[in-house]
Design goal:
- There is one protein chain.
- By secondary structure, the chain is mainly α.
- The chain has one domain.
- The protein is built from eight helices and no strands.
- It is elongated.
- The relative contact order is 0.10.
């Protein structure tokens, strides 16, 4: 009951976030100006604009690099399941989508299915389906460098770790929140280290003079 209630609550939060995102999308330009102004008050105008742009780019990167790849893997898995006439192909493709979103290999779903296919199909098509399942499961290793972190001045590993940690803590919404928090924190850490280095350089120059 607790697991079911948690799942329903997560779905409701996701739907509510979509509604809020739709409302904000209609006023995207003004919302961006307000966010930049607020961030400018907190960290200075120049840094406020930069952090706002970083947040926007990070969200887009996570959408393409995590959710986008998960949907691609689920679609490819669905094609293979339908071709092999696997029962409940839609439910299995949905399971692949969930597994891929939380950054686990889809072979966790497709592997047992491939074993079942060997018991009901000829060896050749069953072997082809197994090879196809492995390719689908590990296709993200080729797609992530192309999509995740592209256009963002933050290492892909930082965004990926933020997305995984956020997903573990808060599900689908955590994918975005975790990535944004870690990316912004990374930029703030870089700025702080640069500031410390500048202060040390000034101190050394004064002492030498």
């Amino acid at each position: 009951m607790g697991l079911a209630a948690g799942g329903v609550f997560a779905v409701l939060k996701f739907v509510a976030s979509l509604v809020i995102a739709g409302v904000l999308l209609t006023t995207a330009a003004s919302s961006k100006r307000v966010t930049q102004a607020l961030a400018g008050r907190l960290v200075g105008e120049e840094h406020g604009v930069a952090l706002t742009e970083l947040t926007i780019q990070t969200i887009r990167s996570v959408f393409k690099g995590v959710l986008g790849i998960a949907f691609v893997q689920a679609a490819l898995a669905a094609i293979g399941l339908v071709v092999m006439d696997v029962p409940a192909a839609g439910l299995l493709a949905g399971a692949v989508l969930v597994v891929a979103i939380v950054q686990l290999p889809p072979i966790l779903v497709l592997g047992p299915v491939a074993v079942w296919v060997f018991s009901v199909a000829a060896p050749l098509p069953a072997t082809i389906f197994l090879a196809y399942s492995i390719i689908v499961s590990f296709s993200d290793t080729a797609l992530k460098p192309l999509l995740l972190g592209r256009g963002v001045e933050v290492p892909m590993l930082v965004i990926l770790l933020g997305a995984i940690g956020g997903a573990i803590v808060d599900g689908v919404i955590g994918l975005f929140v975790g990535a944004v928090v870690l990316a912004v924190g990374y930029q703030l850490l870089k700025a702080w280290l640069a500031m410390e280095q500048d202060e040390e350089a000034v101190t050394e120059a004064v002492e030498s003079s």
